[in-house]
Amino acid sequence: MRIAAYHRYGSPDVVGVEEREEPQPGAGEMRVRVHAASVGSSDAAGRSGTPWFARLAFGLRRPKNAVLGSDFAGVIDAVGPGVTRFAVGDRVFGATGADGGAHAEAIIVSERAAIVSLPDDVAFDAAVAICDGAMTALPFLRDGGRLRPGMRVLVIGASGAVGSAAVQLAAQLGAEVTGVCGPAHVELVASLGARRVIDYTQGDPLQPGATYDVVFDAVGASRFRRARRVLADRGRYLTTVPSWAIMLQQLTSRLGRRRAVIMFTGLRSADAKRPDLEELAALAASGRFAPVLERVLPLDDVAEAHRIVDTGHKAGTVAITPVTQHQEAS
Question: Which CATH number does the domain 133-266 belong to among 1.20.120.330, 3.40.50.720, 2.60.40.10, 3.30.70.260?
């Protein structure tokens, strides 16, 4: 089978397509033919080895695992002894977490992993966009922000994978959403359910004036100290980007009237992730949630996918298609 592999840290060009023997599932395992996989910011960090703390997960001197990719969607084509939740031919999607391995034509996963059935009317590339963005946005808003109907939410980075999901999910939860993005994506963010959209090239969204119950920075473009100026009493500042400052502020802000929150949603257990995957898939199948895709590229263009992610200006998710529908049919 073909895989996208890298053996040293560096630019997108360190990732290339190689051949590897097709894996076989063991007891309690399944082999999934990967029809789509996301290439996200965590993959870019793992490939480049930056920022420094990325190497704590991916390897201090060189990559521990040659194949990146956590979010995947595809069709089960083999099962090992003892598998009862799924069968050959099932459409599934999920995430491998820190183990990676999804940037390949096939991947071995445990049936107890963060994997669920994929509704027939949700496309494979849309499914990996759910994993890439909404699986971060949902627990941040629900658990970190304690979002309730009528609350006012500011989403910074509202056109990205996490931000575009956050705008839609916050609106679904009954919040009044303001999105922050660049000029090229103002119409997109408005179409996702934001009542107001701020073009960050035209104004500072953290200037005192409007107040918000939740400020969700999905791209690490702000700081808690500045965001406090627009947070309402008992308001919460959420960020997906870890730093020593936010770690300390999460502790110290518990004593104040405005909270700083950092979460590591990818480290949640498979048991915690599966209900969210099922809920989000149902929302997508019903048309109430529309995963946003920037580009869908073949496996051979995996380096280009990394280049798009590195720009920091994509709208939604970048996906690759290791196995195409034509290949599956043949």
Answer: 3.40.50.720
